[in-house]
TrEMBL record:
Boundaries of every HTH gntR-type domain copy: 10-78
BP terms from Gene Ontology: negative regulation of DNA-templated transcription
Keyword terms, alphabetized: DNA-binding, Transcription, Transcription regulation
Database matches in SMART domains: HTH_GNTR (SM00345), UTRA (SM00866)
CDD domains registered for this protein in UniProt: WHTH_GntR (cd07377)
InterPro entries per record: Bact_HTH_transcr_reg, Chorismate_lyase_/UTRA_dom_sf, Tscrpt_reg_HTH_GntR, UTRA, WH-like_DNA-bd_sf, WH_DNA-bd_sf
GO molecular function: DNA binding; DNA-binding transcription factor activity
Organism (species): Halomonas beimenensis
Entry protein name: HTH gntR-type domain-containing protein
Length: 241
């Protein structure tokens, strides 16, 4: 039986993409599982294989699925390597990458500030879980980050083991069923605060790079708000377009 599509003026492949995404969000195909073949899905929706393939390519470009030549298409998981280097853009000045090692400095449940509430799309004062971490590169502190998530979507996150994984997005997906599909970042130049001077081991008045990130789920809703302060004497932000 063909899956019905809502009448729309949007290109057919985009309608198919949205329909497939809805089924992924609903949990019909959990992360790490293969979805039906292109020919089976094309028949199910009553479209050509070419149209179906274009829809899958659009999902792959957004990191929702991963296409394996000769094997099929799998719903993406946040494995450690993929998550780290997809979302972590701080590198050495010569462009080389190192594996960031995280140290949790604080974790608590508190009321959302105005900026946090606006970023997460919740009411000011609603409960959020706050985590402060320092990220080391080659055993030297490279950035200090504060992140918050809505406590309602991440129950008992503050009670997780003291040692959290480097890739929190993997934890979000596997432990709480919340998948980060994309993130938007804004960059600012700031001056190190006394706390950042101590943690990052920089001199007073040292310029830092501030990265404000909102991570979003498959439906585009904000999952996490993160503010990172990065040491800039030995590191830089690299984004390959």
């Amino acid at each position: 039986m063909n899956q019905p599509l809502t009448p729309s003026y949007r290109p057919l492949y985009q309608q198919i993409k949205d329909a497939l995404l809805s089924r992924i969000v609903a949990g019909e195909w959990p992360p790490g599982t293969f979805i039906p073949s292109e020919s089976a899905l094309a028949k199910e929706y009553g479209v050509s294989v070419g149209t179906l393939r274009k829809a899958l390519a659009a999902l792959a470009s957004e990191h929702v699925v991963i296409r394996h030549q000769g094997k099929g298409t799998v719903v993406a998981t946040h494995d450690s390597d993929r998550s780290l280097f997809q979302f972590f853009h701080l590198v050495h000045l010569d462009g080389t990458r190192s594996l960031p090692i995280s140290r949790v400095l604080a974790r608590d449940c508190r009321a959302a500030s105005r900026d946090e509430a606006e970023a997460l799309g919740i009411e000011e004062g609603e409960a959020v879980v706050h985590i402060r971490r320092v990220r080391d590169l080659d055993e030297a502190p490279a950035l200090l980050e504060d992140l918050v998530v809505a406590a309602e979507r991440f129950p008992a996150l503050e009670q997780e083991p003291a040692t959290l994984p480097n890739t929190l997005y993997q934890l979000y997906q596997q432990r709480f069923g919340q998948s980060v599909a994309k993130a938007e970042e804004r960059l600012f130049a700031v001056t190190a605060s006394p706390t950042e001077e101590e943690v990052l081991k920089v001199a007073p008045g040292t310029p830092l790079l501030e990265i404000r990130r909102i991570a979003r789920d498959l439906q585009g809703q904000a999952l996490e708000y993160r503010v990172s302060r990065c040491e800039t004497q030995r590191h830089c932000y690299l984004n390959e377009l």
